[in-house]
Each structure stands twice: as structure tokens, then as C-alpha cells.
Write a structure and sequence with these properties.
The structure is a homotetramer of 413-residue chains. In chain A, helix 7 runs antiparallel to helix 8 (300-330), helix 7 packs antiparallel against helix 10 (372-382) and helix 8 (300-330) packs antiparallel against helix 9. The first copy, chain A, folds into three domains: 7-102, Acyl-CoA dehydrogenase/oxidase, N-terminal domain (Butyryl-Coa Dehydrogenase, subunit A, domain 1); 134-249, Butyryl-CoA Dehydrogenase, subunit A, domain 2 (Beta Barrel); 253-400, Butyryl-CoA Dehydrogenase, subunit A, domain 3 (Up-down Bundle), CATH 1.20.140.10. Helices cover 48% and strands 15% of the residues of chain A. By secondary structure, the first copy, chain A, is α+β, with helices and mostly antiparallel strands. Chain A has helices at residues 7-37, 46-57, 78-89, 95-98, 105-115, 118-129, 252-288, 300-330, 336-361, 372-382, 389-400; strands at 134-138, 155-159, 162-173, 180-188, 199-205, 211-217, 230-241, 245-246, 290-291, 294-295. Chains A and D meet through helix 1, helix 3, helix 7, helix 8 and helix 9 of A and helix 1, helix 3, helix 7, helix 8 and helix 9 of D. Chains A, B, C, D: One of its GO terms (molecular function) is flavin adenine dinucleotide binding. Chains A, B, C, D: Belongs to the acyl-CoA dehydrogenase family. Chains A, B, C, D: Homodimer.
Chain lengths: 413, 413, 413, 413
């Protein structure tokens, strides 16, 4: 067992940290200005393009995509990517997009790498890897418990040489970005098949007739318009060629599962970055802000929670890293319990850390003057993204209570 | 000791509940439409005026103002008002405004009743009691710990027959409402006086030259534009007549304290209403939403937290009611520890209840489709309104640890 | 609604407080000495008898027994008894016994009052009311979930003019006290009857052949020998006359329920007294103990938790009082949800308060030098006494989620 | 970074686990019997000797002592020892003693290895390494905040060729074990010296005239008599030869600090083993115990907390392992923040896990029938051992809020 990151990990993390300090953090007020200047507009602002060019030059591009036989990406293993992803979480509105490592495109690119045909890859994967287009993932539906895949109502029916999609999706993040050209849609192709073989995944160009963006959704008051927002979308007799099926018919559930594992760990890595950013901000504030005769940093209550936050972040980071290592060495499936564990624990802890950081900043912490409120909303949303905490905790607890079970994978005992 | 509310309490609570069910709840989607129809506009929407007329007819008007020698208001004692205020919290964006019981106007009206001259009352109090105008309270300043009154930077200087105001305020709620005509401003008239005699309160008509609304602030992504938002305001050589001083010179701190007691208990009452609304919503959802083979209401985890929420609400409501009773019978000052206690405990508990309610609603809970997200943001903000929790907890804890101290006022032992 | 206790309540509470200060607290070290002097002995020490005589003279006797048509006791209503019970909790090892208000005798006396025949009352109730004998309650069984009454394994079979008891019970508190003469035993008389009519309650003189105390149990290391400990008891062909049935055949479950309501509220009242005692101790300690240059009372962390503890105690006390009032005015059954609520919330909160109080006392807090460790163990045990928290919370949550349900009884809305 | 334990780690962990399963767990009821058979006796029971012989044969002996230039012990590095120590925590009353890895002897042996003269080592260290004698550590004093070393009241004065010790110590664990021959005593040799140079450490044979065991202390009702209990000791003009000073005069504080680092991490390792034991017990119970129609393992609430416990244990174990690795690679001093972090977080989490495990076992969980209650008391005591949590958290928080600071040592960023 060795807790020292290897040279390559350090090199990428250092580069990412330098990029963050030199370019991304200074770009935050620029983004704010560009957003204020065109309040009605959806999609990324010019500063993102500028950052993307620099990131690409510095080799900080598509790092999320683990190397593999597919010959794409040239990215990092999960273990090496973790510190980089954490750094992007420190400026979560800008850095992931700047380095082409932002959800949901990352997950969609992974799907295309692993399940796409050469034609699908050429048409969608290449421009996504270049950040020339964006994509959205359409799984969640209004009115059903999305964590229960058997409840999906969207139909994908074969009609001659085409698939016909009918249904309604929401929380399609990024779909209102004008650059978004691809919708990855999950629907039922065989409603009477076995529970986990009823669903298929189909690639729908956003401009296809019958696709209607019904409305944008807000998340705790944020519309996230620079990321293309979160759309509710109606699919009415939307027709795509048979070749647009991703993977095999009935493979939708398995594909979705494959997508969610890495997605969840990426979310956790970035969430830890948010916590570190919050602690940086707190450190500054606690030393500078004077109340009742002394800086806040001298208060016992503030110290205690800083200690608490630090220990939580350190322990959870190690669990995320171990999960990444397990995924790299044993495969995503072998790391299922760990992924569930961090999915439940990390966003919850980070929300708590941000909550207290806001408290320390006073009312200012709730405004757009600091990134805390925005990160707080993001962390809160993570507890529901890819399924609510409770579903994962219940599944993990069930496994834990199985008589054969003992500890997680890879533990000494 | 008797826990049964008296007839008058029941009568007003029943009337308010009926008004809520018959008029306010059905008006919520109307407000949403009217907001969507004029997204750029600040201030109340037409539906509020409609509700105000009904509320007034039904005698649900200005109930927040306890009866007194002042001969105004004809409102209710704190103890009788509590259930009414709680009911308004169930629809916190509409009901308080509909019944002319919304902050910050309530607090400002109280100030004018208790400290205003007959001329000030005629000019400002009367139209406020009629809801013909609105007001804002300008105490908090950017860049200082507002809970430490000695740090206030705004200057209010005498120059001949006028007061000249210079400074910067923020979180002036309601100030961007076009109907807002009065700013109650706290500033230092005597920066070298004793710590709590340096400040005075002055009445500034919003249209006075030198008053500039710098920008609106957001609270967890919400701009609360229908309430006139939360403004940052600059005061540059703003001149008002000498007669616009509220109370006596140097009395600003004492006046602010007098204002905050009732304000805090009103916040707590309404917050409990938010919790009850959340529990209503949860009850519906948990019975209707099916996941993995059964309604959520059958899940142990859901039941446990419903139990937990119920007990918290019941216990804290009683503490709020007792605080109200103490204020009525012994005066606001005698209830100081109780007010601190509920100020710390209620918003924290309600935030937690809303957090779990959102979790039960899944991603939908974060959107504008349900009032949960908005109420969550409001409860979160309450933990900072009128001073952060920590300041109140520290003060209460200090008192609790005093060797002479034992329990709160009015306890048997 | 009126939060002021009436004169009678005050009078008894004042008397009890004076008795506590003048006699009970000074007796604590005496009890410790008497326990150390005869370590092998079970049962009360001489000091308890001395205190009982004083208590009786001062009218502090059997106050737990609400007045009723039964013409016994002459005690207080639940609402008036609450402050007295809380005071006894401040010295929970001595005061309840001193005032003949200690479990399980209180519950057993109530049973005899409500369900006993005149003969049973004469034989058992009179001497219990005089504290000439003690009793134990035998419901819980090793190896079964006692909160599920259908699982009771003890059999009570009719054989001619006798009942024959066979089975095994544990946590029979007080059974090793040599003064204990009565065992109230719950067993199945009709194992095939309807779920809640299978059980009956039978009165077994402790000396009956076939009754064997198997062993004493410890609770977190305490054997509570001065209270007669907690016994495991074997019943082998134990024969008692038919007249020893308490209430009607098949009425055991209903009788047990009737017993548990008041029992639970008494436990909660005393638990609040433990919390107040802890806060008293903390107040002394925090002002006297110097570390790193100042008294602990000046530390922010200590102040914050003192505030937190104070608010919890105040809010939960009000809920306990309201529950008592409901029991008095509407009956125990109408207060079922409230009883469940306090049963879950109070011991948990008090355990937390004691945990932090111990922390403040350092290692000394864990020893017998202060009553904190003992009270901590008692509060911990309360979370399991009369059924684990979880069972009550689940039941309360189920009720809360019922579509018809809203708030607890007696609430305004 | 590599999370796979090396071969040697696995080999020792496997051996320890086998020893635990084959010998230690079956010995638990034997110990209980031997304790019951001689209730008045202090010190280890015969079964411990039997286990020691087996452990020694199997090479499971003195593994706590990291290899070093001292040429003693032949133990394991901290990182390799961690899984072994965790396994001993699963049977914390027997396994550490069986493998000669029990506090306080481990810490005392470390002191003798690092600071002892050859003569001291020959006289004390050799027999301790052989488990022929036992030792106690006398630092904490009644009536002072022991975490503040400047408050130590015990005097160690030079008088000719001797040191004269006067003072009072408590929580001298093991001192009533008849095999205990050595007391390591900290006292002030230079009360006017610099704050951290006033103290010295002196070796006092327990039989020295003037040493009086005043009384045993209990910890949450446990006297831990088989470990020699926790003694209060009076030192009155206790004279030892000058050669009995450990290390240099004025070096007491530094020596104590050196002792506490490894001591704290050992405590944490064992505490994690307690948590794993609890989870094992829970797993069995939850599957076997039926209530209200199904096994507890099917309840959502039970599953949720099992998940929660699992994630806490996994994350904290990694933090403990990383701390061990840091101590091995960078030295104990470099790991100071990590040691503080685990010292605060691990016992708190483990106490919580044990608390809920007890709840699942019902009242049985509080008795001696399962090891839960005993482990709960041990975990609770750990939060005070070697200084209360709050002192460590405050120190860690202070460091975290330093402007220069960022993360813990060895983190990537």
C-alpha cells in the first residue's frame, strides 16, 4: 500500500492547478460579466472558448477518458484523473467545460467509445472530443421514479427502417445550449421483456422533427443557462434511422449502468474540489473578518468546524481514490459498493461543508458575490443526480447485511 | 397551564386557514403565470392586490400588530397571532403579502407605531397600514459584520435643518418594488459615543436625490422580484429634513433591537408553516409515488423521518407559542433568551425538514414545480437574517453558563 | 393558552425542589458510602428509608397516581406531576424511590388501581402504596422481539383452580430487591386467539415455588443493585390461584398498553431532570475549570452546546407538558402520538446532552465521582425501555403519512 | 498510489484473523466464566496466559513495535501493523493482551526502547516484551485539565542521589494488576522552567514505599479489573534512584508527546475493529431476528444505517492507514494533523456505530451477553483518552485556518 501519487499524477495535477490559478479563477468575474451582458441567452459564453484553447494547448483535454483498446481520448486512469477532476471542481462552472470534462458530455462520449458503431463515433464522438458540439442525456422522466428503470414511459418503436420515439423527458442538462446537437435517449423497445431488457438507447439529433423543448427547469433558483440549462423535452413521433440505436436492442439498462459508474465518481471528485474551494474561501474570510473584537479564525466554533470539514474531506477523498483504483484494477462492476458509498457520502458531506461556509460568510454567502451559493445548490442537486441517496444507501445496506458479506472489496480483512 | 387556544385564536386561525385554502393556494399558479408573463418586472403581481381585497374584507388584515395604547392596527397579541402567521407561512410568497403581514413592512410599521411622531405616522404609517405603499429596512452593510453594531459605516450627519446620509447598505428587501416609498436607514450620528448610542434611525423617501439602487442580490439563485428583491443601495449626500429622525438621536441601536424581537418570532412562526406545508406535500407524494413495488409511505426510512419532522415541529411550535406568551405577558425584553432560542433552532430544523422533503420529491423538488425549493432557500436565508445563528447561540450559551442562571423565564423550576 | 403553572403545581414543585436540595442531594454521597460498605448486597440502603420518611411527612408521596374514582393515591394530574417528576430525575437513583414514585412500582400500582380486584388491591396495592413491599414487571423475554407482543413465549395455562406459568423473562427490574414480593407476569393464555387477545397478566408472589432468579443483568456495566437490579427469571410450573389473574383473560396486551403510556411520560419527565442536573453540573464546571488560560465557560464551543442543550430541553419539556395535559383532558389514548413522540425524542436528546456534559468533565465524567456516567447509562437504556425508539418512530411516522392525518391532537391547525 | 496491501501485511493479517477465530473468540466465554468465578480479584485470568503462549508461537507477538536501529521487537511498520491491530480490536478485552499489544504497556515499551538506558531496558523492557511483568502510565491528575501540561501538580524533586515524587495521579490503567511492577510517572522537575521543559518522566517500581493505590475508578460502570483497572494513586515522598529518570531532565513533555502519537493511532485501529465486530454481530442479528413479520435485515432503516456505518468505517480506515504510512515514511511529527484528525473522528464514529448496533440488539445489547456494551463504553472513553476530542479539534482547526495552510500532508493538492 502506498499513498504517494505517481509522477504522472503529480504532473497532470500540477498543470491543472496552474491552469486553474492562472486562467480559470481570473475568468470567473469575466463569465459573470458576460452572463450579465446577455441575460436572455442560453449556452456558453466566449470566455469558455478562450479557456478551452489554452487547456488544449496545455494538454488538459479529455483527460476523463481512460486509455483503452478503443484508441481514443488518450486520457487518464480513474486514479490519475481524480486529482485533476477535483481541481476542476474548484471552479465547477468553468473548469470542467474548459477542459472538455463536463457532464453530461463526458458520459455520452464514454458511451460512444464503448458502444458506438464506427459511423456513430465519426458523426458524434469526434466532434464531441473536439468540443465542436455538445450533447444531452435523456433518461429521467417527469412523474416517475427514475431510479426504478421499469417505470420508464418513453417508447422507442421500430417502424420499418426507423425508430420512432414518443415520450417526455426532463433534467436533460445542456439541451438548450445552441451547440447541443445530440440527445441520447433511453426508452422502452420491449415493454413486455424481462425487467432490465425492456429498454434501449437511441441517438436523436436535436433538430429532428418532433423534438420540442417544453421549458427550462430551475435548480434551487439557478437555471444554469451557460451550460445549456436543464430541459424538459417532448418527443412526438420522432423518427431516426435504425442505425441510430446505441448498442443492442434491450441493452439500454446495461448501457445506462455502465455510464453511471464513472459519472458518479467524477461528480464526487469535483464535489471534493468544491469543498476545498470553500475551505480556501473560509480561510481567507476567517482571518480577514473581524467581529466583536477579533478575527473569526480565533473562534472555537469556527475552528471546530474547520477541523471537522478537513477530516471529512481527507477521509472521503481517500475513499474516492480507492474507488478509482478499484475501477482501474478490477473493473467498474467490482467497485459497485464503493461507488454507492461515495455517491451517498460525498455530496452529503460537501453540502454540509458549504452550508457552514455560507454561514461564515453571512448573507453575502447566499449571493452571487461568492461561488458558495452556487456550489451549495450544485452539491444539493448531486444528492439527487443519478438517483436519490436513499436508493443507493438501501442497496448498499442490503449488501452489507447479507450474511456472506463483510467489508468492501480490496480491504485487508 | 392550559394548551387549548382560546376562541378568538381559533376563530382567526380558522378564517386564515379557509382564506388560504380557498384563495391563496389556488393563486399560486396564477402568480407563477403572472411572473412568467413579465419576467423583467419588479414588484407585486396583480393577483396580490386581488388577494389583499379579499383578506381585508375577511378581517385578515394587519393582524401582526398587537393592540396597544397607540390605537392602531387592532391586531392580535403575539400568542393569538402565532397560528395565523404559521398559516401564512404555508404559502410564504403570497399569504403574508395578501394579509399585509409581510416583512419588512411589518417591522417598519411597528417602529412607526412605537417611535414615530404623529407627522411621521400620518405620512408613512397610514399608507403602509393600507398597503398603499411599501417600505424597506436598511441596516446590513456589505463588508462588515452587521451583527456587531459598532461596525456600521453609514454616516448620518446633521447639517443645519437636515440630516445627510452617506454610506452603502445591502439586503434592503423590497427596495426595488416600485411601490416602495420609504427607506428606514440606520447610520452613525455619533461615532465617538458609547458603543450602543452611536447609531440613529432616519426615514428616507426612496426618491430622495443621492439614493441609488446599485444592484439586486440573489439568494441561492432567487431574486424574489415580486417582493421587490434584495437591493444594494448607495447613499451619497442624501438629505432629509431633521424631522425625519425616528425616535431620538443615538436611539438607533435600541430601536433596531425593539424591531428585531417581533421580527424574529414572526419569521419562526412562518417557518413552521413552511414545515407543515412540506409535510402536507410529502404526505401526498409518499402515498401516490410508487417505486420498487410500493408507495414511498410504506418505507421505514420515510416513516422515520416523518416522525422526526413531526416531533420537531410540535416541540418547536410550543416553544414559539411560549415565547409569544412571554412577550405578551412579560414584555419582549423578558423573552430575550426564548427569542434567541427559537431564532437558532426553528430555521435550522425547518431547513432540515425541507431538505428531506426535497429528497423525497426527487429532482422535481428542486424545481419551481413545487414550493419546496423556494421555501428551502427561504429557510436557509433565515439562518442569517437578523444575525447569523452563531451569534445568537453564543449569547444564549453565555447566559446559560452564568452561575446565577438556570432555566428560561417562566419555567416551573 | 396559558403557560403559567397553577398554584398547586408551583407548590408541589417548590416543595419537591426544597426536599431535593435539603435532603436528597446531600444523601447522594451517603448512598455511595452505604453501597461501598456492603458491595454484595441487593436492595435499597438505609438512607432511602430515611428519605422516605421525610418525603412522606412533607406530602411528597405517591404523587404519580392521578386522582380518580378509585379513591386511592390522592396524587397529582399528569400536568401537575410533571415538574415534580422532573425534579426527581435530578437525582434519579434516590429521589423517585424516596418519594415512592419509582418504576416499576408506579406502573404496577397503576395496574392494581385500575384492574385489580379489591382482594388484589388489599394484598398488593396497599403495601406498595406504603412502600412496605416492592414489585417487578415481567414482560420482556430473552430471544424475542418484545415490542411484538405476538412473540411472547411464556405460557399461562389454566389447571383446575390455578394458573400454571412456564417461561423465561428478563429485565425484571427490582426483582432481586429482598423487599420485592410481587411479580406481575405477562404470558399467553390463548396462543391461538386473535393477536392481541392471546395474552393475560397474572400476579405471582416472588416466593412461589418454581420461580428462579437465574442471574442479574448489567446495563452498560451497572447492576443497579440498590434498586434490586435487572433479573433474568425462570418460571417452571409456577402455580398461583385463579384469583391471581389481573383483569380479564386475554386482557394482557390491553393492560400492558395502559401501563406503558404513563410509564413513558414519567420516564421522559425524569430524563429532563437528568438533563437539568447535567446543565447545573456543567455550569459549575465550566466556570471553575481553567484550561489554556481561561475558564471553559468562555469557549465558543462550550457556549454553543449549552445553548443547544437549553433549547432542546425547553422545547421538549413543553411537548412533555402538553402530552400530560392531553392525557389529563382527553385520555391516554388520545395522546398516543404525543407519547410516541416524546418517547423517541426525549431520551435521545438527553443522552446527547449527557454525552457532551461528560466530555466537558473529561475522564472524571465517566467515573462514579459525578452522576453523569450513571445518568448517561440510564438515558441510553431509556431508548430501549418499553420498546426501542425505532418501533415508536415507525408507528408515529406511519400515522403522520396517513392521508387524513395532519398534526398532533389539540394543535390549532 | 496503490491500495493493495503487500504480502507481508496480508500474511500477518491472515495469521491474526485465524488466531482470532480459532482461539480468541472462543475464549471470550471462558474469560467471562473465570471473571465470574473470582469476582474480587484484579488482574488477568488464566485464559490470557494460554492465549499468549499460542500467539507467541504463531509469531503474533510484540508486533506493535516498529523495527528500528534499537534491534528490539522485530515488529511491524505502522502501515503493516494497522490491519493486525484492527483485528485485535474485534475482541478488545482479550486479543491485544494475548498478543502483548495492549495499552498502556505498548506505549511504555516504546518509551523504554527510545529513551531508556541499557540498564533501564534490561530491568523493565525485557520482561515487558516477554509479558512477565506489566506497567502503568501515570500522567493524568484529578482536578486539573490534563491536556494542558503546564497544570501538572506532581512534583519530582532531586534529593541527593534520588528523585522524590509527590503528587496524585489517576486513570493509571493496569496499576491494580498484581503483575504490574512499573509506574511511569510524569511530574514537574522545574516548575519555573519554560512551559514545555518543566516536566520529567521517572520510573517508579510499584512497590516503592509511599506509593498508595487510593481506589479503583469505574468507566461507565466498568472496572476493567482483568486489565488491572484504572487506579487513583497517591505518591508521598516516593524515592527512586537518580538513574530512574527516563530521558533527560525537562524532557517529560516531549517524551509524552512521542508516546501519544503511536498510542492514538493504535487506539483508532482497534476502534475500527470494534466497529467491524459490531457489524458482524448486527449482520447475524438482523438476519435471525424476526419482528412484525420479517427479519430486521429487510427494514429500510436498518439498511440505511448499515450503509452509513460501512462507508464511515471504510473512509476512516483509509485515513488511519494513510496516517500510518505517513508516520512510517515522514515521521510521527509530520503526521501530527492526521493523528489529530483520526483521534477526533474515529472514536466518535465508532461510538455512533456501536450505539446503533446496541439499539438493534434491544435491551440485550446493553448487557454482558454481547460485547457491544463493553465496546461502547470503551469507544466513549477513547474520546477522552489522551485528551478530549475538543482539544485536538481546536488545534487541528487552528492549523486549517492558518493562511498558509491548505490540506494535510502528502495530499496531491
Amino acid at each position: 500500500m502506498d499513498f504517494r501519487p505517481d509522477e504522472m499524477t503529480r504532473a497532470f495535477a500540477d498543470e491543472a492547478a496552474a491552469f486553474l490559478d492562472e486562467h480559470v479563477l481570473p475568468a470567473e468575474p469575466v463569465l459573470a460579466q458576460q452572463l450579465a451582458a446577455a441575460p436572455g441567452e442560453w449556452g456558453p459564453r466566449p470566455i469558455v472558448r478562450e479557456l478551452q484553447e489554452i487547456a488544449r494547448e496545455r494538454g488538459l483535454w479529455n483527460l476523463f477518458l481512460p486509455p483503452g483498446p478503443h484508441g481514443r481520448g488518450g486520457g487518464l486512469s480513474n486514479l490519475r484523473y481524480a486529482p485533476v477532476a477535483e481541481i476542476t471542481g474548484r471552479s465547477s462552472r468553468l473548469a470542467p467545460a474548459a477542459m472538455n470534462c463536463a457532464a453530461p458530455d463526458t458520459g455520452n462520449m464514454e458511451l460512444l467509445v464503448h458502444f458506438g458503431t464506427p459511423e456513430q463515433q465519426e458523426r458524434w464522438l469526434e466532434p464531441l472530443l473536439e468540443a465542436r458540439i455538445r450533447s444531452a442525456f435523456c433518461m429521467t422522466e417527469p412523474g416517475t421514479a427514475s431510479s426504478d428503470a421499469s417505470q420508464i414511459g418513453t417508447r422507442v418503436q421500430r417502424d420499418g427502417g426507423e425508430w420512432v420515439v414518443n415520450g417526455r423527458k426532463w433534467f436533460a442538462t445542456g439541451a438548450m445550449n445552441p451547440e447541443c446537437e445530440l440527445l441520447v435517449v433511453m426508452g422502452k423497445t420491449d415493454p413486455n421483456g424481462p425487467r432490465h431488457r425492456q429498454q434501449s438507447m437511441v441517438l436523436v439529433p436535436r433538430g429532428t422533427p418532433g423534438v420540442t423543448v417544453v421549458r427550462p427547469l430551475t435548480v434551487l433558483g439557478y437555471d444554469d443557462r451557460d451550460h445549456g440549462g436543464h430541459a424538459e423535452i417532448r418527443f412526438e413521433d420522432v423518427r431516426v434511422p435504425a442505425a441510430n440505436l446505441l448498442g443492442e436492442p434491450g441493452g439500454g439498462f446495461a448501457i445506462a449502468q455502465a455510464r453511471l459508474g464513472p459519472g458518479r465518481i467524477h461528480h464526487c471528485m469535483r464535489a471534493l474540489g468544491m469543498a476545498e474551494r470553500a475551505l480556501d474561501l473560509v480561510r481567507g474570510r476567517a482571518n480577514e473578518r473581524i467581529a466583536f473584537g477579533g478575527p473569526l479564525a480565533r473562534r472555537g466554533v469556527v475552528r471546530e468546524w474547520a477541523a471537522d470539514a478537513r477530516v471529512q474531506v481527507e477521509a472521503l477523498r481517500l475513499l474516492v481514490l480507492k474507488t478509482a483504483w478499484l475501477m482501474d484494477t478490477e473493473g467498474n462492476r467490482a467497485a459497485m459498493k464503493e461507488i454507492q458509498g461515495i455517491k451517498v457520502a460525498v455530496p452529503r458531506a460537501v453540502q454540509g461543508i458549504l452550508d457552514r461556509a455560507i454561514q461564515l460568510f453571512g448573507a453575502a454567502g447566499l449571493t452571487g458575490d461568492h461561488p458558495l451559493a452556487e456550489m451549495f445548490a450544485a452539491a444539493r442537486a448531486l444528492r439527487l443526480a443519478d438517483g436519490p441517496d436513499e436508493v443507493h444507501a438501501a442497496s448498499l445496506g442490503k449488501a452489507e447485511l447479507r450474511l456472506s458479506s463483510s467489508t468492501m472489496e480490496g480491504a485487508v480483512q
